[in-house]
Amino acid sequence: MTVIARFAPSPTGYLHIGGARTALFNWLFARHHGGKCLLRIEDTDRVRSTEAAIKAIIDGLAWLGLDFDGDIVMQFKRAPRHAEVAHAMLAAGTAYYCYCTPEELEAMREKARAEGRPVRYDGTWRDRDPSEAPPGVKPVIRLRAPQTGSTVIRDGVQGEVTVDNEQLDDLVLLRADGTPTYMLSVVVDDHDMGITHVIRGDDHLTNAFRQAQIYRANNWSVPEFSHIPLIHGPDGAKLSKRHGALGIEAYREMGYLPEALRNYLLRLGWGHGDDEIIPTEQAISWFDLPGIGRAPARLDYAKLDNLNGHYMRQADDGRLVDLVAERIGPFNQAQRAILLAAMAGLKARAKTLVELADNARFYVAARPIPMDEKAAALGTEEARARLGRLAGRLKDQAEWTETALEAAIRAFVEAEGVKLGAVAQPLRAALAGAVTSPGIFEVMAVLGRDEALGRIGDFAGVALD
């Protein structure tokens, strides 16, 4: 059997982190088994579904690095096929017309509540002849669900789960206006797309029982279900906006690399021993359903930051320069060369692209570079005079490398009879406009002779031309 999985988001909002994890698990499962992973947009809610949301979902999945097989299936366009199946079930006797009015249904619900019973349809029209239908009432089509026995789901994560059929009612398949319900649409689409495995959040577990009944009513093979525990916040409560539940595009803006987010999402509810750093190719090799736990995973931004820092240190310097350029660029050729030379030192000190861009900004700043308050405070008359003398000595420095510059500055410090900090601190302020930066010798070497001396001269108030 060829494995065919799918990811089927509803475009009523952004692609949230839970949906992204579901997409990743489906994609990894299909790739692990040499199968296919399909994408279906469940846009049947015409009021809430938007083109902007559809684009955001597709763009978010592409940024995350998940490629899907075949064309994207748009569920709304398949509504005639869904209705066709409902009518075929009607003809086969596995579904029936229900002529209950909205008022009758509400009375049915009120009676159930008053008697302390679960609110469900009572089967009023299950065995009645349509000739008894009241005039002017457009019927819905309901599933003729089994009333005895039980429906069993052998779930790849939850194990065997059973519900008594008397707890389920005859759900609506086709509304009075001829539009299909979510339950019918999902089953028909999954059947027609040849889906063999349905991997989704465990908030859909109760839907699986009803969907299994629709499959069996049509004599279709029921796919293998696997329901993943939801993601919770750090406090163990269901993830919500107060925890910072965000769309995937927000994680991109927050400066995370897609490979880091893939690794992080993979470890949210799936494990392989004590392994934490799991590149995507390794994840494809290892991923399978038994590795998914039954307990909800907890969002941990500190762990995500650490993972992202690891992947940034592994990333190509040129790629990082391009990503920084998206935030503080564009760069000319000289600026790009400076950042390429600086990137090894910069990426070792940052955990997100936001930090990386902020830390890189001083390298490409135009002279005179801006000074933060703490850096400006270091510009005392004594410090400026000392840096003026240093600049005069460095102007004739033959070799402009970290090693040579360190030797020259240490010799200058000794000649001045001061500690290194008395020179290094104002020098850092002159070069970076801040009191923190990569090592000053590294910064000077990266900036180059002319730019470094120019910045020192600006700070000291001397012209070195």
From TrEMBL:
<dbReference type="InterPro" id="IPR033910">
    <property type="entry name" value="GluRS_core"/>
</dbReference>
<feature type="short sequence motif" description="'KMSKS' region">
    <location>
        <begin position="238"/>
        <end position="242"/>
    </location>
</feature>
<feature type="binding site">
    <location>
        <position position="241"/>
    </location>
    <ligand>
        <name>ATP</name>
    </ligand>
</feature>
<feature type="domain" description="Aminoacyl-tRNA synthetase class I anticodon-binding">
    <location>
        <begin position="325"/>
        <end position="457"/>
    </location>
</feature>
<dbReference type="InterPro" id="IPR020751">
    <property type="entry name" value="aa-tRNA-synth_I_codon-bd_sub2"/>
</dbReference>
<dbReference type="InterPro" id="IPR049940">
    <property type="entry name" value="GluQ/Sye"/>
</dbReference>
<dbReference type="InterPro" id="IPR014729">
    <property type="entry name" value="Rossmann-like_a/b/a_fold"/>
</dbReference>
<dbReference type="GO" id="GO:0000049">
    <property type="term" value="F:tRNA binding"/>
</dbReference>
<keyword id="KW-0648">Protein biosynthesis</keyword>
<comment type="similarity">
    <text>Belongs to the class-I aminoacyl-tRNA synthetase family. Glutamate--tRNA ligase type 1 subfamily.</text>
</comment>
<keyword id="KW-0963">Cytoplasm</keyword>
<comment type="subunit">
    <text>Monomer.</text>
</comment>
<dbReference type="GO" id="GO:0005524">
    <property type="term" value="F:ATP binding"/>
</dbReference>
<dbReference type="InterPro" id="IPR000924">
    <property type="entry name" value="Glu/Gln-tRNA-synth"/>
</dbReference>
<protein>
    <recommendedName>
        <fullName>Glutamate--tRNA ligase</fullName>
        <ecNumber>6.1.1.17</ecNumber>
    </recommendedName>
</protein>
<dbReference type="GO" id="GO:0005829">
    <property type="term" value="C:cytosol"/>
</dbReference>
<dbReference type="InterPro" id="IPR001412">
    <property type="entry name" value="aa-tRNA-synth_I_CS"/>
</dbReference>
<dbReference type="GO" id="GO:0004818">
    <property type="term" value="F:glutamate-tRNA ligase activity"/>
</dbReference>
<feature type="domain" description="Glutamyl/glutaminyl-tRNA synthetase class Ib catalytic">
    <location>
        <begin position="3"/>
        <end position="304"/>
    </location>
</feature>
<dbReference type="InterPro" id="IPR004527">
    <property type="entry name" value="Glu-tRNA-ligase_bac/mito"/>
</dbReference>
<dbReference type="GO" id="GO:0006424">
    <property type="term" value="P:glutamyl-tRNA aminoacylation"/>
</dbReference>
<dbReference type="InterPro" id="IPR020058">
    <property type="entry name" value="Glu/Gln-tRNA-synth_Ib_cat-dom"/>
</dbReference>
<dbReference type="InterPro" id="IPR045462">
    <property type="entry name" value="aa-tRNA-synth_I_cd-bd"/>
</dbReference>
<keyword id="KW-0547">Nucleotide-binding</keyword>
<feature type="short sequence motif" description="'HIGH' region">
    <location>
        <begin position="9"/>
        <end position="19"/>
    </location>
</feature>
<dbReference type="Pfam" id="PF19269">
    <property type="entry name" value="Anticodon_2"/>
</dbReference>
<keyword id="KW-0436">Ligase</keyword>
<comment type="function">
    <text>Catalyzes the attachment of glutamate to tRNA(Glu) in a two-step reaction: glutamate is first activated by ATP to form Glu-AMP and then transferred to the acceptor end of tRNA(Glu).</text>
</comment>
<dbReference type="Pfam" id="PF00749">
    <property type="entry name" value="tRNA-synt_1c"/>
</dbReference>
<dbReference type="InterPro" id="IPR008925">
    <property type="entry name" value="aa_tRNA-synth_I_cd-bd_sf"/>
</dbReference>
<dbReference type="GO" id="GO:0008270">
    <property type="term" value="F:zinc ion binding"/>
</dbReference>
<keyword id="KW-0067">ATP-binding</keyword>
<keyword id="KW-0030">Aminoacyl-tRNA synthetase</keyword>
